[in-house]
Amino acid sequence: MSLQFHNQLNKKVDPFTPQVEGKVSLYTCGPTVYNYLHVGNWTAYIYWDTLVRVLQANDLRVDRVMNITDVGHLVSDADDGEDKLEKGAKREGKTAWEVAAFYTDDFLKGMKRLNLIAPTHLTKATNYIEEQLQLVRTLKEKGFTYEIDDGIYFDTAKFPTYGDFAGFDLEAQKAGARVEYNPEKRNHSDFALWKFSPAGETRDMEWDTPADLIEAGEERLGFPGWHLECSAMAMTLLGNTLDLHTGGIDHIPVHHTNEIAQSEAATGKIFANYWMHNNHLKVNGTKISKSLDNGFTLDDLEEKGYSPIEFRMFVLQSHYRSEGNFTFENLDAAKNRLRNWRNIAALRHQTHDRLRDDDEKSTDDESVSLYASSQALVEALSNDLDTPVAFAIIDEAFSKIESIDIEDIHQHALTSLLETIDDLLGLQLLETTKDISDDSKRLIIERERAREAKDWKAADHLRNQIEKNGVTVRDTAHGSIWEYSV
Ligand code: AMP
Ligand code: ZN
């Protein structure tokens, strides 16, 4: 199978080749744990989970690091303003440590609810302070840093390819700058590697700055800049050059650009061979923002009757590089589509109950085409994670299944397609479509007999009894089939 992904390094879809055959090192920028994640944030993690599944389906072992930003992500990209964690602590009357622990836990629970595969390493920035300081030390020794009143900065003028990744012109950016920045900085784009704790302020999270890193030699407490953690953790656990690095498009101009500058300046090696970015999700056509209060959480959706997997279904209907639009109408459509898929999945129990073994069935075109659909799915997703094409393939395969008699459905072919869908898209079609009880099955047979005897009253009565068990019977041209009640 050939894999290809859109790579921000070349700004085009490139064939993907890992450095070591059979193995991929992958880094995903994780959440800042100062609040609940909203539907937009989750969108990013759903797509990157799908990427892991697609790599695995291509027989690649994925060594993946995802960080938890529990310190140092400032409210403003210009390296000033409050630390988001300290801000969360004030808001909730807790310490920054407590806030980080609470929202980290909520994130981990959310990952399970969305059926996201746990990364090989889930690393907290605060557990890698030493490694981050060591990176600052290397950069200092190589002459890339300078110190000003509020921290140790990276001098972007010393890294001539700084603007290449985002495709921007440093001079133009400087001229058009709208963000206020510390006038002591040498260049507008310079960024803090290590910030000093403001004088007279005690932070919940702060560490001694090693004496050899400070010019004046006086003792100062400090904390890492946001970008530093990703480089330090990625390189510590995955080596100096990663195969793949992922994040949201908002990370291209600042966060990833800075990760590249500081990592490559330190090692002299390319930091990541492929960079993939998910586009953003809007809500009702508008950017998600605090002031609009439109950043729905997983709990908000559940309260309104939508499960995390229904939300996952909604996300995967769109391509990761196209801008998504969250509306409850769109979520309803995804929910209905998933319900339909689950009812098709349930047909595997019903063909089994017809007591005709697969090998008695003709090796007809339908079952062969189901096996081919599994293959086509892997191919579609290997082509830059084309989830909309994958969904079209599934719809087409499922409508074929609907068009044949239940007893002719090849059970193994259907089950194997469902396994492939679950492996690739994590929709839990198999585990959410358990067989119905023997009692319900008995009632369905009795109802069929009543219908054959044209005893409509008994048939209606039996239907009501079946429905009490959460099952609906539908009479089709291909016989009666059962479905899960809404
Ligand atoms: P943060 O916690 O702010 O670092 O964001 C966590 C992740 O969510 C990052 O990878 C962002 O790129 C991503 N993200 C933030 N907003 C959205 C959005 N509206 N749609 C998709 N991804 C988003
Ligand atoms: Zn990062």
Topology summary:
Layout: E1 4-7, E2 12-15, E3 23-28, H1 39-57, E4 61-68, H2 84-92, H3 96-113, E5 121-124, H4 129-141, E6 145-148, E7 151-154, H5 170-175, E8 191-196, E9 207-208, E10 221-224, H6 226-238, E11 242-248, H7 252-267, E12 272-278, E13 281-283, H8 298-303, H9 308-316, E14 324-326, H10 328-353, H11 365-382, H12 387-402, H13 411-425, H14 438-452, H15 456-468, E15 471-476, E16 479-484
Parallel strand pairs: 3-4, 3-11, 4-5, 11-12, 13-14
Antiparallel strand pairs: 1-2, 6-7, 7-8, 8-10, 9-10, 15-16
The protein binds adenosine monophosphate and zinc ion.
Zinc ion binds next to helix 7.
Structure description:
There is one protein chain. The chain is an alpha/beta fold and 486 residues long. It has three domains: 16-278, HUPs (Rossmann fold), CATH 3.40.50; 304-425, Isoleucyl-tRNA Synthetase, Domain 1, CATH 1.10.730; 438-484, no CATH class. Helix content is 44%, strand content 16%. The chain is built from 15 helices and 16 strands. It has helices spanning 39-57, 84-92, 96-113, 129-141, 170-175, 226-238, 252-267, 298-303, 308-316, 328-353, 365-382, 387-402, 411-425, 438-452, 456-468; strands spanning 4-7, 12-15, 23-28, 61-68, 121-124, 145-148, 151-154, 191-196, 207-208, 221-224, 242-248, 272-278, 281-283, 324-326, 471-476, 479-484. The strands form five sheets. It has a five-stranded parallel beta sheet with strand order 5-4-3-11-12, with helices on both faces. Strand 3 (23-28), helix 1 and strand 4 form a beta-alpha-beta unit. Helix 4 crosses helix 6, helix 10 packs antiparallel against helix 13 and helix 11 (365-382) packs antiparallel against helix 12 (387-402). The chain is elongated and about 95 Å long. The two termini are 39 Å apart. 42% of the residues are buried. The mean pLDDT is 93. The structure holds adenosine monophosphate and zinc ion. Zinc ion binds next to helix 7.
